[in-house]
Amino acid sequence: MIEKIIVLALEEDLGLGDITSDNIFTEEDKASAEIIAKDDMVLCGVNIAKNIFNYVDPELKFRALKKDGDAVKKGETVIKLDGRALGILRAERVALNFMQRLSGVAAVSKEYTNIAKKYGVMVVDTRKSSPGMRKFDKYAVRCGGAKNHRMSLSDGVLIKDNHIAAAGSITKAVQKIRAAVGHTPKIEVETTNLKEVKEALFCKADIIMLDNMTPAQAGAAVRLINRRAVVEISGGVNKNNLEDYCKTGADVISSGALTHSVPAKDLSLKIISINRGLL
């Protein structure tokens, strides 16, 4: 089933029709085309592109030469297409937009994971995704070798600063949650200093997030926790300081940088041949 976001993207791009292509090609004109990588990348979005092309023209022949998660070199052909020229051109930009965005996310995720795996640390994403794109962004994160944090607010308990302020304290917030959700869901608590870490430990939080701490502060917190809870570091993590945070001994590092501002990778579609009036 085609995703709603893809349909919306196609409607946005096509408008009332392709005024250029519709006046150059006819429905009988057939073309062969290739999608080519213009950067080195971790490829992502091949299956999404297939859905887009087949939604626009179910008779298009789509052949993937590479799959999601593959390392691709600049200049490599990743997809070949055969069918109506108009179908190819109507789907081109939307398919490339998804692939370029998701390949960028996969590349950054791979870069972070390659650093963290030397220390046995798991890298995870956050909910800082493009609106409407979270499902796709998180899929791209997995293609890059990292893991997913919560998909939505319903996926896990994470007591943050605003919850703590509203409840009155970490202790009161944890008590309210435990009374409401029972013993099964894990409870994660966000902390910003050692005093809050101690209170989260006293409440027997399952996961303690160290939020916006320096590597030195996070290291001290990890030693204090001493394996009594899973430790997640979050806030201010980037490529330049990731290794310093990994050295603290934390279990998990989450970073919005995997999804919120990644540079897109470059792919282009080139028509290789046109057969006028043939199907």
Q: Any key phrases for this structure?
A:
single chain; 279 residues; alpha/beta; Aldehyde Oxidoreductase, domain 3; TIM Barrel; 2 domains; six-stranded parallel β-sheet; 9 helices; elongated
Kindly describe this structure.
This protein is α/β, with parallel strands linked by helices. The protein folds into 2 domains: 4-105 and 263-275, Alpha-Beta Complex (Aldehyde Oxidoreductase, domain 3); 156-258, Aldolase class I (TIM Barrel). The protein is 39% helix and 20% strand. It contains 9 helices and 12 strands. The strands form 3 sheets. A 6-stranded parallel beta sheet has the order 6-11-10-9-8-7. Helix 7 links the parallel strand 8 (187-191) and strand 9 (207-211). Helix 1 packs across helix 3 (85-116) and helix 7 (194-202) runs parallel beside helix 8. It is elongated, with a radius of gyration of 23 Å. The chain starts with a helix and ends with a strand.
What is the tally of beta strands? 12
Q: Give the CATH class of the largest domain.
A: Alpha Beta
The side-by-side strand order for the widest beta sheet comes to 6-11-10-9-8-7
Mean pLDDT: 96
Separation of the first and last Cα atoms: 27 Å
SS element count, helices: 9
The 3D shape can be described as: elongated
CATH level-4 homologous superfamily of the largest domain: Quinolinate phosphoribosyl transferase, N-terminal domain
* SSE series: HEEHEEEHEHEHHEHEHEHEE
In the CATH hierarchy, the architecture of the largest domain is: Alpha-Beta Complex
Structural class: alpha/beta
**Tell me about the biggest sheet?**
6 strands, parallel
What is the total domain count?
2
> What would you call the quaternary organization?
single chain
Uncertain runs: none
Look up the CATH topology of the largest domain.
Aldehyde Oxidoreductase, domain 3
The proportion of residues forming helix, as a percent range, comes to 25-40%
Radius of gyration: 23 Å
